[in-house]
Amino acid sequence: MKNSSSSSIKKRLRLPLYAAGGAVVGFLGASGVSKLPSDLNWTLSVYYDYDLLFAILAALVVVMTVWNIFSLSRTPSVPPMEDDAYGDSDSLISPAERSLGKAMILSGFSVILTFTWAALALSLYASNRTMPNSPELFNLLNFVASCISIIIVVVVQTLTVKRYNRYYPERTLDLNSRNMKKDHFEKLDEGEKWIVYRAAYRSFQMMNVLLGVGMVSMVLYSMLFTFAPFPIVMLSVIWIANIGIYYRETYRASNQ
Question: Which residues form the signal peptide (predicted)?
Answer without folding.
Answer: none
